Amino acid sequence: MKRVINNRKPLILVTNDDGYQAKGIVSLIEAMRELGDVVVFAPELHQSGMSSAISTSQPLRSRIYRQEEGLTAYMCTGTPVDCVKLALNKFMDRKPDLLVSGINHGSNAGISVIYSGTMGAAIEGCIFDVPSFGVSLCEYAHDADFTHACKVALRVAKTILDKGLPKGICLNVNVPQGETKGIKITSQTHGKWVNEYFQSTDGNGRDVFWITGNFENWEEDNENTDEWALANGYAAVVPVRIDMTAHDLIPELKKWEF
């Protein structure tokens, strides 16, 4: 059933990939309530690393877990993108003025943007032409302090509500631990994850593999990248385009004989 929200205030959709009980989203909800009415649509379970995955073989279920003046919060059995799709298609009576995904427990800088469920949700909002951004704190502890990340999220949210975003663009916001020196607009760091699996054995002596690894930074000295900004105490904001076409290569490809 659709819930009618006071149309005189900005309407903000909040989601994440760590699940509706994660401290990051709990902190973000309270921050966004300073700006307008909030609808939360978040995964029931941890969905990190789901990128833009959707559920195709199982039906989705949702229920309200919190309802107050200016706030309606749902949990959903699906992925972060499922949450956004379901909220916008079935549960909101008008398009939100802003979508905020997070606050993620852990960095989504560099190449991690393509794996991130946090950013998958923000990109999905962008596809629906909703001004959207994902925000992540570079700290994986479940009880991390999100105070400064919330301050950054508020500054970014206020600016987007004031200025908007170009069609087809969302923002990837990453925040270092502790108080930041400021917000730096950057590019995505070139690099990749290496040593990605730890091998061990189960109780029957069979091999099992656990995701792990470390980021191999190919441009450590580039002050215009998100990883440099984070390492030097700045929050990093990277504009992300949903059109993945390599437009500059099209003229060359047209010369090829396939």
Automatic annotation (TrEMBL):
Domain of life: Bacteria
GO CC, one annotated term: cytoplasm
GO molecular function, a single term: nucleotide binding
EC number of the protein: 3.1.3.5
InterPro entries per record: SurE (IPR030048), SurE-like_Pase/nucleotidase (IPR002828), SurE-like_sf (IPR036523)
Alphabetically ordered keywords of this record: Cytoplasm, Hydrolase, Metal-binding, Nucleotide-binding
Required co-factors: a divalent metal cation
Predominant localisation class: cytoplasm
Catalysed reaction, written as an equation: a ribonucleoside 5'-phosphate + H2O = a ribonucleoside + phosphate
Cellular localisation: Cytoplasm
Domain called Survival protein SurE-like phosphatase/nucleotidase: residue spans: 12-193
Short name of any one Pfam family annotated for the protein: SurE
Entry's cofactor comment: Binds 1 divalent metal cation per subunit.
Sequence positions that bind a divalent metal cation: 17-18, 48, 104
Function: Nucleotidase that shows phosphatase activity on nucleoside 5'-monophosphates.
NCBIfam families: PRK00346.1-4, PRK00346.2-2, surE
Family to which this protein belongs: Belongs to the SurE nucleotidase family.
Protein name: 5'-nucleotidase SurE
Annotated organism of origin: Petrimonas mucosa
Gene: surE
